[in-house]
Design goal:
Elements (H helix, E strand, L loop, with lengths): L23 H7 L5 H5 L32 E3 H6 L5 H16 L2 E5 L5 H15 L3 H4 L11 E4 L13 E9 L4 H10 L13 E10 L11 E4 L5 E6 L6 E5 L2 E4 L7 E5 L1 H6 L9 E3 L7 E8 L6 E2 L31 E2 H11 L6 H10 L5 H5 L17
Parallel strand pairs: 1-2
Antiparallel strand pairs: 2-10, 3-4, 4-5, 5-12, 6-11, 7-10, 7-12, 8-9, 8-11, 13-14
The structure holds 2-oxoglutaric acid and fe (ii) ion.
């Protein structure tokens, strides 16, 4: 990822600070990043107990529902091959639009991703995570950065630690994007100005590794959050489930389907669609006996692109565009201010641990002139200060 003027500008130390904990094992491994040997053993250190910093509050670790999330599985290959009257594509677009407007998640098959390539990527990631921690730490993610190796317990966190390790890469995309083509086809030509919105974008590929956990019901692999990026493509490895979405007050599983890619809307797309499409609130749970892996591709615009919805979605209350035949109930007053991806990335890496309310907290932070997190969090919309826990979830 190229140098971002916002990145690495904070005063946060590169090293974990001593923290107060009542769990000896956790203290032992958390006090210093140089205690690699001890950290390496963390996941298996105590056969029956997780260290206290990994224990999540009951509200976040709320029990999961058995009911699978009601989300469409769209065969995009078949829809695109449908040379007839376009009915297949229209139907697929309707299903996707409905899912995006409700919880923000759908799955795609027939996408053309070579299964052998997907397997190789998952196996490559698995090989990395099997390396000794000291070796993995050579690729350590620097504070404020989005790329590199990260494990909360070797970084600066002190509470609500996710039970996982991650390895992230930047991916610069020089091509015109299928996402814009799709939304142009669904939402009409007013999305055309987005034509190059994602070109030159600096997206992120993240490998997630969730070790088996002795107390899975007391922790989370990834806490409840919305991805700040625009759109996420997720490949779940094998048949180990873990991804869950909050729908109708319940955490519902999104079980892996062979060959399917999960697609979810992120905060940037929610802002781009003026709230029409919901940023998906999701989390990942872990298992007692089984480890789990997933690969997430976070589609992001170029750092300096201004995130602003197309005019079609932005009619002020009471007005409507002349070129729109029927009254479009999707026209809403502007919900979020202009921002750049660099600003949102900076906010989630330095000031705020991505959660269900990132976008509102971010809007409030921008409104306050984005001076410091303390200023942002003193306002009602950002009432829970997370300044000490940034870079936790995304
Ligand atoms: O591993 C998963 O299923 C979800 C991961 C996730 O939400 C993320 O990496 O942002
Ligand atoms: Fe996520």
């Amino acid at each position: 990822m190229p140098e971002n003027p916002h990145h690495n500008s904070g005063s946060r130390s590169d090293h974990p600070v001593p923290v107060a904990m009542d769990d000896d094992a956790a203290r032992h491994v958390l006090l210093s990043a140089s205690a690699d040997a001890a950290i390496d053993d963390l996941w298996g250190q105590q056969p029956n107990k997780i260290p206290d910093p990994f224990v999540w509050p009951h509200a976040d670790a709320l029990a999961s529902s058995e009911r699978e999330l009601d989300a469409p599985v769209v065969d995009v290959g078949a829809a695109m091959r449908d040379a007839g009257d376009g009915e297949g594509m229209r139907r697929a677009a309707e299903l996707v639009a409905a899912a995006c407007a409700s919880h923000g998640l759908f799955q795609v098959t027939g996408h053309g991703l070579d299964p052998a390539l997907a397997r190789a990527a998952l196996d490559g990631a698995a090989g990395f995570f099997r390396l000794p921690l000291a070796t993995k730490q050579r690729a350590r993610r620097a504070p404020g950065n989005l790329t590199g190796f990260a494990a909360a317990h070797v970084d600066r966190f002190t509470s609500n630690l996710p039970w996982k390790e991650t390895l992230s890469f930047a991916h610069r995309d020089h091509h015109r994007h299928v996402v814009v083509d799709y939304f142009t086809s669904v939402l009409g030509t007013d999305f055309k100005p987005l034509g190059d919105f994602f070109s030159d974008g600096c997206s992120i590929m993240r490998c997630n590794y969730y070790p088996a956990c002795p107390e899975p019901e007391r922790t989370l692999g990834t806490g409840p959050h919305c991805d700040p990026s625009a759109l996420t493509l997720l490949l779940q490895d094998g048949d180990v489930d873990g991804l869950q979405v909050l729908a109708a007050g319940e955490w519902r599983p999104v079980r892996p389907r062979p060959g399917a890619l999960v697609v979810n809307i992120g905060d940037t797309f929610m802002a781009l669609s003026n709230g029409r499409y919901r940023s998906c609130l999701h989390r990942a749970v872990v298992h007692r006996e089984r480890e789990r892996r997933s690969l997430a591709f976070f589609l992001c615009p170029r750092e300096d692109r201004v995130v602003r919805p197309p005019p079609r979605l932005l009619t002020a209350a009471g007005e409507h565009h002349e070129d729109i035949e029927e009254e479009d109930e999707q026209q809403q007053p502007r919900r979020y201010p202009d921002f750049t991806w660099a600003e949102l990335a900076h906010f989630t890496q330095r000031h705020y641990r991505a959660d269900a309310r990132t976008l509102d907290a971010f809007a409030c932070w921008l409104g306050a002139g984005a001076p410091t997190c303390a200023a942002a969090t003193s306002s009602a919309a950002c009432d829970e200060s997370q300044a000490d826990e940034a870079q936790g979830t995304f």
